[in-house]
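Why do we care about 3D structure at all? Because function follows from shape, and shape follows, mostly, from sequence. That is the central idea of this module. The next example makes it concrete: a single protein chain, its amino acid sequence, and then its structure expressed as tokens.
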Amino acid sequence: MMQDPARSEWSTASHGGITASSSALNASPQQIDRLNAQAHLLRHSDSQQALLLCQQAYEQALRLDYQVGLACSLLRWGVCSYILGHPVAQVRARLQAALELAQALGDTQAQIEALNVLAMLHADSGANDLALQAYDRCLALARNIGDSRYEGRTLGNMALVHSSLGQYAHTLDHLQRYLDLAEQTGDEEGQTYALANLGQLLSTLGERETAQRALERSLATPHSQQDLARQSSTRLHLGELLFKHGEVGEAKAHLLEAVQLSRRTGNLRDLCDALHALSQAHHADDDQDAARIILAEAHELAARVDDGRRLAALQLTRSKTLIESGDLDGAHASLQAVLQRAEPLGMAALLAETHKALASIAEARADYQVALQHFRSFHQLRETLHGDQSQQQLRRILIRQQVQELQRQADDERNRSQELSSELTAARQADQEKQMLLQQLSAQTEMLHQLSREDGLTGVANRRWLDLQLAQEFERARRFAHPLSVAMLDLDHFKSINDRFTHLTGDKVLRAVATLLRDVCRRSDLVARYGGEEFMLLLVGTPITQAASLCEKLRLRIEQYDWSTLHPELKNVTLSIGLESNARFDQLEPLLAAVDTRLYEAKHQGRNRVSAGLS
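And the structure:
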């Protein structure tokens, strides 16, 4: 494991950081801001130098007790440490400290930056749900302050998580939205990143020409010439694309450039990826010694940054080499290790390749039953990745992307010659089918947006949307001193309904309860399914006395409802309600814990009642 270069100069203290040394002389807030700004600019071209600058900024900010500079330097330090592959615990501690300081200071942009990198750490460890939750927080914060630049960066990072899970339609949609935002706002850096990642995905989907154009456009931007890390990644994607289509010589030239650039920047993950691809090119060129040496270095780097995804991909490459050499026993053991590492990470595409390779080994051993099992697993994964529904969704998005690409090209040409305006008009008139498809896609996008917020069974808000709204409404109520009441509702003896009348009847009961709750609550309130038979009400601007009256009304409405309309033998359904408000709580977590306690009291006291924190 690589030693943290900061360790010799800094001693552990609060904020996961360090105490000031005697070198911080003649410090000023302006100087600290300059150091942090310079570190930010250098992070993708000379990460080691950027690290030294933000460490120096931290020391001076600590000496002056300059909180803004302290938060910024911790953030820059965490980002540089992540790029350089420092121990994950150290990186997370610095970023978490930066996030807490940024929250205390009300610095939304710093919060977004810290959350983005913390989400990357989650994704690297396979905690994809946590990563997407962090990115959702970033999106909400960015949209709240109207910052399309940060919104685009977050969409781009979310796309990488979806791509690793084989969710290519989501990936493509996120990247296209990222590119659209960057082009609308003139964000050249965002365009460079979006085009490079879009090119990589299109290559995966077999869209060679569109992929190569996107990658070459990314390389041609002025920003790409300055951002060595982005140039390295784009060269890597271009090399992989050319290698995939048999152009090994040209691919190796791009991959060698990617290796050299990533060595200059110090980004260990980029270097690992470039070395992995280069080893495969050497293997295809029958240079097995070079391929083996390069692959070993890539594996050492992946282990150093403790990146499970990259380790799994490298192990798969090694397994294929063993199969080619005839070492079926070694290849089988190696592939089993790939499965153990990749399955918890949800790497659908890599898992499909692994099962296919295991099927071929079993078939060579005449173990046809095992071969069939692996082939079925391979087929199921391939169906998930490339089934009819996935392909239709991808095709719709690809058509939209292609139409937008055609539009961009037409706009460029129109700037060079007014004669193209009439041709563009004719093309638009002749393109009615594509326009209709775009309209359908727009409607489907709106529907998907709605589904992302709704519970599929009951139609009320889902848990993810509830968590986001809880945080936002609690903060808004605290800031403006508005009342906010929260109620947890649990259906009494719901398991017996499922057991006696089937789960189908139980689902009908849940839908009916959700409808009754919505009918009684206001439009400004939020009705959400918390999980199972539990619902939660977020009553905005409602004191607890009024909320208690509303909950009692809801309780009676449920008790008095004619449940026999759902099943002739279903006579009675009741619910218990726990209710609290923000009046006695400064933080959201204690409020939710109190609501849960109130619900427990209602259950303990006999059910079918409201327990509210009125005292």
